[in-house]
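Protocol step 4 of 6: structure prediction from sequence.
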Amino acid sequence: MPSMALPEDGLPEIIERIVRTYDEVSKINQLGIRQLPSRDAVVELIRGLKEILYPGYFGRRNLTRENVPYHIGDKVHNVYRQLAEQIYLSVQHECRRTEQSECGHCRKLAGDLGLQFLQRLPEVRRLLAGDVQATYDGDPAARSLDEIIFSYPGVAAITVYRLAHELWRLSVPLLPRIMTEIAHSETGIDIHPGAVIGENFFIDHGTGVVIGETTEIGRNVKIYQGVTLGALSFAKDEKGELLRGRKRHPTIGDNVTIYSGATLLGGETVVGEGSTVGGNVWLTHAVPAQSFVRVEEPSLVVADKKKHAKAAADKAGAAKAPPR
């Protein structure tokens, strides 16, 4: 089929107008010598890390006790190179030491940070094992740990969060947020890498869950879909700019369950240990340990449809009738 002839006479003028905005609206440009991390490369990095964290589940499948050291050894080397490059691009972007495209300080820092991150993977695996087990123990629909690791969005989001959190703790810029936003786009679960989350964390179903930057979550916590752990308000300075670095999000104690649609807001909102927060609750203050927080059950009306329609029509007719 022959290609369709398109009128291209107007394109040069359109291109010129677009390029002109790169000076007029420069805040959303990234032009010059400092490159940014690559989202595609970060996606590939997450895949490699998941293969290390869950050997036999992702990537190569025919692993044994005999060949796993060789395969994982090769994978760790590849991941280290990918990771160091993305860390370098992240720290170089914020580096003000040089205007040159290559920064020796940033290269060395990226390598050191990459090693420090990889040293934390055994502890990350221990935490993830607890998260997977908590999911199995908390969901009667789960048939096996395999099913959970392969298919549960909560575990997928928590896995990326726990990796990104370690980079956040190492003060790596950009990269942790890119990682958790990739998980957010894939799972519908938005966990800021700065949040502090304890062992055996379970997100059931998960779509619409939001966990803010300064949230603190204890051990053995379970939350359901649509839960928001957010900020109550955003304080501003005398210039009208947002104040950053303050505790803005809730603290959740150990052994707490938060049901679907609940919204908990504010840095002073503390849910005490062992409490249960019911569905659709709006909570902006602290509650003590062993509390049960719920919305009063609304009254339910069950009416005959014909009688209901007639009553509505009579009411409408009375409203239209002229006054006597």
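Step 5 (inspection) to follow. The chain has a mean pLDDT of 91.
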